Amino acid sequence: MFQTKKGKIIIAVIAAVLLVVAIVVVILHKADNGGSNPGSSVSIVGTWYSDKPDSMTFTKDGKYQGNSWNGGNAWLTSGSYSIDGSTLTLSGDLDGKTTLTISKGADGKTIISGKYNYYSTEADAKAKIAENKNQQSEDEANIVPNTVNKLLGEWTSLDGTTTCTFTEKSFTIHFKGNSAVAEDSQYYEYEIVSDTQMKVTQSGKTSTYTYSLYDKDGVTYFVSPIKAYASTYTKGSAQTTSSGSGASSAAAGTSGATVKDTVISSVKNPDVSSYTDEQAAAVAAALLGTWKGTFDETPNADSVYWTYTFNADGTYSFSNSAANETGTYTVSNDPNDNYYHSALNLKTGTETKTVKFYFTGKAPIRMITDGKNDPTFVKQ
What we know:
Blueprint: H1 5-34, E1 46-50, E2 55-58, E3 63-67, E4 78-84, E5 87-92, E6 96-104, E7 110-113, E8 117-119, H2 122-151, E9 153-157, E10 162-166, E11 170-175, E12 184-192, E13 197-202, E14 205-210, E15 212-216, E16 219-223, E17 232-235, H3 247-251, H4 272-287, E18 289-293, E19 306-310, E20 315-319, E21 324-333, E22 342-348, E23 351-359, E24 366-369, E25 377-379
Antiparallel strand pairs: 1-2, 1-8, 2-3, 3-4, 4-5, 5-6, 6-7, 7-8, 9-10, 9-17, 10-11, 11-12, 12-13, 13-14, 15-16, 16-17, 18-19, 18-25, 19-20, 20-21, 21-22, 22-23, 23-24, 24-25
């Protein structure tokens, strides 16, 4: 069928109008879904509620605003945001740059996660807060009985010379004796405070010490709060004889697998000077490198870190949000200190300060200092 020239023009105009309308609709639809990113298919526009708790509102023009909610203050203040795939980037004059992740939960609902998790409804956020509290209470309630149950029984030092036997309220350290030191037993009462702290009482005097329990290669290790005669004990086949013959390992069917215990303290150790020298060398070697600490419960790219770097030439550097420091360092060790086994002597210019510290025995190695305002440092 032939059309007139006028009819063809009318049809062309109508088609052009429809095309323009379709393009506008698509652009508006994508803008509604993607917030400040027209190319995103994820919709975050609206108010989200977190397990901190606080809330955050995202607007169509690419702005965000933090708000107090459910008794908690706002984590972030205000700024702009953008979305790239599943990555949500927030930028604010006061907040700096924060990166969050947009994902789907097991129930198919969208979650914005990072230091805290944000949910699209108050009900979902409150349910998560309640779940976290219940889990925390359950974990805390189980720490004491679980730890006591794990400690019960006899532990043997890595060199095989000492045993540490636990009951529900006490433990006894028994040194078998040798040609230089007589057989000896020491009795202590204890109370588990947390998964790292233990109150120990001897002769009516009570102190709180750090301990460690961990499993490695099928063997359970106990780093004792009391360093008399030995520092580390096991339940399993990791012991060796004091002569290094590996008799205990061989008896357990693991020939050649020897583990040596570095005794940190106790004047009663035979030839304590050799142990002290060995400990000093071990600490000096472990200290080299970079250590980072932060006060954030869940560290992320935006966390503020305290950083120490110790070099083999005896120089060091330190930095945090308030200071940058460089200088020289030496390490001293006290084999009779049952808590802080070593000390850093830091010199910057004419000023010298001393920082006592100890290492945890479980990887990743952590350095705990005597500074009340210091974070825990983790070896990088």
